[in-house]
Specification:
Layout lengths: L2 E12 L2 E12 L3 E5 L6 H8 L7 E6 L2 E3 L4 H6 L2 E4 L11 H5 L6 E2 L3 E2 L1 H14 L15 H14 L4 E5 L7 H16 L3 E5 L3 H7 L2 E6 L2 E7 L5 H9 L17 E9 L7 E6 L3 E5 L6 H8 L7 E6 L2 E3 L4 H7 L1 E4 L3 H5 L6 H6 L3 H10 L1 H14 L16 H13 L5 E5 L7 H16 L3 E5 L3 H7 L2 E6 L2 E7 L6 H8 L5 E2 L1
Parallel strand pairs: 3-10, 3-11, 6-9, 9-10, 15-20, 15-21, 18-19, 19-20, 22-23
Antiparallel strand pairs: 1-2, 1-4, 4-5, 7-8, 11-12, 13-14, 13-16, 16-17, 21-22
This protein binds adenosine-5'-triphosphate (ATP) and magnesium ion.
Length: 500
């Protein structure tokens, strides 16, 4: 098969960072091509050059063997290259249909938008995708997974020849992932080339034809997916052999630190009761929409509670606001780093110290050096890829942003930390670093609640597992080696109530 799209010798520099160093990528017509590498390897940067968001410093791009110039997103569109970005890119206050046809609304006559035509065309695309979304809904009323499907519908409405997907499955449920994969295969059979970026390597094995692997802004190798395996891919990505994927430890389990009793908050948090002890990790499993995040938000005071109590170290605490939760010793690492976890326009250092300013408080004026030392220590421990602690958070790669969010809470004196999808978007090597940090927390007596959609992670790291379905806990199980993915899924899809 002829190479259809070629990026040759691409170099891109940012102040203090050589993000891409002579990188090449060739993609065939009608193939699903994975672009893989650790956090900060340069995947998103390479794709931003292809989609016209960034200008390259050196290199060339060929389409069908002919050189092309891509200086703007407009140029990319003219070549039928479309992108679904890692961070969603929709206008919240507009309808789904308006977002799908942004800038290209069907018209009636020279000036009038053909609203009826637009809504019905948009609805057809959504229905074809098999998703239950109204074209007339406002985007701000949709959940993350549905927003992702709107992005997909948008790129389908353009007759894409090249479709770039940067971490498309992160917010999706297994059913939606299946829909997405069906759509990808359908597009491939129509001759569309898809560039697929993901840290979920099992999915890469399932849906991709070839894989280009990058490390530190350089090419490492190109593999035929059918002729390789996970271990080989990981070896190329991280440049070394990884030990255990889940470094589970078993420190002494102590007294109950967090007790939640009959908590009710809105439609998705119904009569939730559980406890977590010092030194323990309670995993919370469930499908997207089961109410896991909402439960954490209610406990942390981000959403109002209707009834129920929260106690820390045996004392009931009144939490009306996140500040009350922080004072009570509860920390929350949110799943939505762009919305809540991170201030993109502030430097890495301030992002890390933000939640814990109280702790530095008085000392801050006297000892700015103290803050810097702590921050540098974290950048080092978590291996956050940044030229300096003063770099703005928005300039970090997606996975490194997630590490900053994490670092922020690890610095606090929290007794209980709620983690919501702590390793989402984080590469295989860095995941182990995150688990090790969680381990050092439980070793020091912290109680951890870990919400995750990745069942291997839940089963690999939790001491007990609570499963949620439609706002309720359908079972709490000891993770004693007999708990299986099948059993968790059974309860996550509404199996009978059960407590062990
Ligand atoms: N606008 C920018 N300004 C400065 N540095 C940047 C900018 N965009 C990216 N970088 C840097 O370029 C490098 C490559 O980042 P990139 O986002 O391409 O990584 P990635 O492979 O997509 O990682 P991830 O898996 O975490 O999403 C990183 O060191 C990042 O900090
Ligand atoms: Mg990226």
């Amino acid at each position: 098969m002829a190479e259809f799209l070629e990026m040759r010798g691409i170099t891109k520099r940012f102040p203090g960072v050589l993000a891409l160093d002579n990188v090449s990528l060739s993609v065939r017509k009608g193939e699903v091509h994975a672009l893989l590498g650790e956090n900060g390897a340069g995947k998103s940067t390479l794709m931003k050059i292809l989609s016209g968001a960034y200008r390259m410093d050196e290199g060339e791009i060929l389409f069908d063997g002919k050189p092309v110039e891509i200086h703007s997103s407009h140029d990319a569109q003219a070549l039928n290259i479309s992108t679904i970005y890692q961070e969603l890119n929709l206008t919240e206050q507009l309808t789904v249909a308006e977002n799908i046809f942004m800038g290209r609304q069907p018209t009636k006559g020279p000036f009038m938008v053909d609203w009826k035509g637009m809504f019905s065309k948009a609805q057809t695309i959504l229905d074809d995708l098999g998703v239950d979304i109204s074209a007339q809904a406002l985007v701000r009323d949709l959940g993350v997974a549905h927003k992702q499907m709107v992005e997909l519908a948008k790129s389908l409405s353009i007759n894409s020849r090249v479709l770039i997907m940067d971490e498309p499955t992160a917010p999706l449920t297994s059913r939606e992932i299946k829909t997405l994969f069906d759509t990808i295969r359908m597009l491939r059979s129509r001759g569309v080339s898809i560039i697929y970026i993901s840290h979920r390597l099992e999915e890469v094995m399932e849906v991709c034809d070839r894989a280009t692997i990058m490390r530190d802004g350089r090419n490492v190798t190109v593999l035929n997916v059918a002729e390789t395996n996970l271990d080989e891919i990981i070896r190329y990505m991280v440049g070394r052999e990884l030990k255990e994927k889940f470094p589970k430890i078993h420190p002494d389990i102590g007294e109950t630190r967090l007790q939640v009793d009959k908590l009710n908050a809105g439609k998705q948090v119904k009569n939730i009761s559980f406890s977590v002890r010092s030194g323990e990790i309670l995993g919370i499993a469930g499908l997207v929409g089961a109410g896991r995040t909402e439960t954490a938000r209610a406990i942390f005071g981000m959403d109002p509670k209707e009834s129920g109590t929260v106690s820390v170290d045996g004392k009931e605490v009144s939490i009306q606001h996140p500040l009350d939760a922080i004072r009570a010793g509860i920390g929350f690492v949110t799943e939505d780093r762009k919305g809540e976890g991170l201030v993109l326009t502030m430097p890495v250092s301030q992002n890390i110290t933000l939640a814990t300013l109280e702790k530095f408080g008085a000392a801050l004026r006297l000892d700015l050096g103290g803050e810097k030392a702590v921050v540098l220590d974290f950048i080092d421990k978590l291996d956050i890829k940044t030229p300096s602690h003063l770099q703005l958070a928005r300039n970090l790669s997606g996975g490194n942003q997630q590490k900053v969010v994490l670092a922020k809470w690890l610095l606090s004196d929290a007794k209980v930390i709620l983690f919501d999808e702590p390793t989402r978007g984080i590469d295989v090597g860095a995941k182990i670093e995150v688990y090790n940090i969680i381990n050092s927390l439980i070793r020091s007596g912290v109680a951890v609640v870990m919400i995750s959609s990745e069942l291997p992670e839940i089963l690999g790291m939790s001491d007990r597992v609570a499963v949620m379905h439609q706002g309720e806990i359908t079972g709490i199980f000891d993770n004693d080696g007999t708990l299986t993915q099948e059993k968790v899924l059974y309860y996550a899809t509404g199996g009978k109530k059960h407590t062990a």
